[in-house]
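Ops channel
N.P.: pipeline sanity check, posting one input/output pair.
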């Protein structure tokens, strides 16, 4: 944030509200925000003009008018481009929330018309990119073609943050560390285990201790995958150094390497569920008492009501969420 700029947030908020209510000859607030956010993101009026297909002078004029209305600069004009000032950073954050709020209002108005329309943003972890979630989205699209869906695939902690910050309508991730700002709509318990090719002897048993992989080549998940922490705990408890042939932060890469016989993988029952069901891999639960099941949670932000479109998608995913849980017979 730019130094030397003193801002009283209440006064800035009042100025922002004044800009939004500006007299008719002022540019439309939504248009100004679209221009401003593009310039803030790209650091250049010329680049923003090219992206938005409008003239650079039109963007510059609206920014100058807004700065005059607010009474302070939103950008530092540097030889290398434009950089947000402290006021500009506040405007950028407020503008993002305003645009999201406007989209929600439009969706609610569509609801009043009885139209099944709207856009829904979802955040999920990598393990959910196959199987149940794509099928649930396909079902929603078949019945409600007016609903569009954006799916963000993120690390576990990033999914939680995106929900809490209302960047998405809802998300699914492992082990919420706090429920204060989240509402859990559904949950399922999954477990950690060994993933092996179909012909591997370890795959013939349903459960085994962590020590069963001693001396064998292993493929280990790295951060930000949530299981990496559990594996570190097991290593410490057994004082056993793994023969780590490969580490990866991508579940698809780990399962592909396991299928090629490069080593034993360690993933959750959710991660390799599709390959296990297809008979390509086997899953053996790690039975050490120190391990506890991981909770997969479907969450929304407590402070933000969901739109009608989001409720439709939520209901579809909730209806079969229990099938994501580990069952000993799987």
């Amino acid at each position: 944030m730019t130094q030397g700029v003193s801002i009283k947030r209440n006064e800035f908020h009042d100025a922002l509200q004044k800009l939004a209510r500006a007299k008719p000859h002022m540019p439309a607030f939504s248009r100004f925000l679209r221009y401003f956010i593009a310039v803030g993101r790209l650091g250049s009026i010329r680049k923003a003009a090219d992206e938005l297909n409008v003239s650079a002078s039109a963007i510059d004029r609206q920014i100058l008018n807004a700065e005059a209305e607010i009474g302070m600069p939103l950008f530092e004009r540097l030889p290398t481009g434009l950089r947000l000032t402290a006021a500009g950073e506040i405007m950028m954050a407020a503008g993002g929330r305003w645009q999201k709020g406007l989209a929600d209002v439009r969706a609610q108005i569509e609801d009043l018309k009885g139209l099944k329309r709207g856009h829904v943003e979802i955040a999920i972890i990598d393990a959910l990119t196959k199987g149940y979630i794509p099928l649930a989205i396909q079902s929603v699209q078949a019945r409600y073609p007016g609903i569009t869906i954006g799916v963000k695939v993120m690390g576990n902690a990033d999914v939680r943050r995106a929900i809490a910050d209302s960047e998405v309508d809802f998300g699914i991730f492992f082990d919420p560390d706090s429920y204060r700002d989240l509402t859990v709509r559904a949950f399922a318990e999954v477990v950690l285990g060994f993933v092996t090719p179909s012909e591997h002897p370890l795959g013939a048993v349903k459960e085994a201790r962590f020590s069963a992989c001693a001396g064998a080549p292993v493929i280990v998940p790295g951060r930000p995958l949530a299981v990496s922490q559990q594996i570190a705990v097991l290593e410490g408890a057994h004082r056993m150094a793994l023969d780590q042939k490969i580490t990866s932060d991508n579940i698809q890469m780990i399962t592909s390497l396991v299928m090629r016989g490069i080593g034993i993988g360690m993933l959750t029952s959710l991660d390799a569920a599709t390959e296990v069901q297809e008979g390509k891999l086997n899953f053996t639960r790690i039975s050490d008492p120190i391990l506890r099941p991981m909770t997969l949670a479907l969450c929304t932000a407590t402070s933000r009501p969901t739109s009608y479109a989001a409720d439709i998608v939520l209901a579809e995913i909730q209806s079969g969420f229990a099938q994501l849980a580990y069952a000993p017979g799987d």
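N.P.: looks fine end to end. The mean pLDDT is 84.
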